[in-house]
Amino acid sequence: MEFAQLKLQQQNFLHQYEQVGKSQNSLKCYRLDFECLNQFLLNPKFAQAQINFDQVTLESFEQYLSNKYPNANSVRRKLQTLRLFFDYLVREHSFPENPIKKLVSRPKQLLPPAPNFMPDLLKVNDYLNKRIAEASTSKERLQFMRNQILFILIYQCGLSVSQLGPLERAHFINMDTDSPRVTIHPPRRGPYTVPINGKYASVIRNYFAILSTEQLKDQIEFQQIFFNSNSFKLISGGISPRGIEDIFKRISSAAGVAMTPKSLRQSAVFRWLKEKHPLTNIKEWMGVAPSYNFSLYAQYANIRANEVAEFGDLPIGQLDTLH
Description:
The chain has 323 residues and is mainly α.
């Protein structure tokens, strides 16, 4: 297979998987995995007119991945992407067989959770409230309110970055009651709802109102509750998973806390476990399979019992600046 043909087939693969409903986060991972393969193949040793995915090449690529990525799960995921890709080529009659199947599959390495505990959560909460209160323009204030709502929805509802970006106002229901909920629409299953603590409903409604005011000022329409903007103008509705991760990198650096959307989501799971919600409910709220195993969480909770016991809601008084 020629290199140009390989890249074209990679684009076709991504297009087909987008059509069948793969999330944008999954598609992003596939693109990154393809880039990694292509960088490897551009090595002078393999830069040839015809790329032969023989055993030597594949084993060299696996070693290349192992040297580049110390996390065994990263290597496993990139090889799994190639398995899917060559399965696709075989189905399309563009390749005789899947060469990746000749490699020995690596078992998935289960990593212990690494949540943020209450001192970190309160630090970030205080930082965001301070930035909202001290904002010099309405646009800057709205940007930090957006970040505060992202923070609340991950910690209170356990939402992932891929679930947050497409959220619209219509996905929030019962917001005038004691039982508000947010509706999630996964690409390959029916919608489900996640409860929101009632004390945050007015905070979220207030954010929606201010966002609508800023949209009217800038004469821009979109239904998503999150957005891209600069210091002067709203640019577009929606926000990518990478955009959310970048926001948390900036928050983490400014607040002096090592926090990612993933670590914050794990904090949500520990809070649910501490509050003794049924595991079936927690699995639904996380959007994971019924077979998902919480044993690592249970082990970690036993080791860090005192810190896990502190998980709770953010003090409502600290959110008053949003009103």
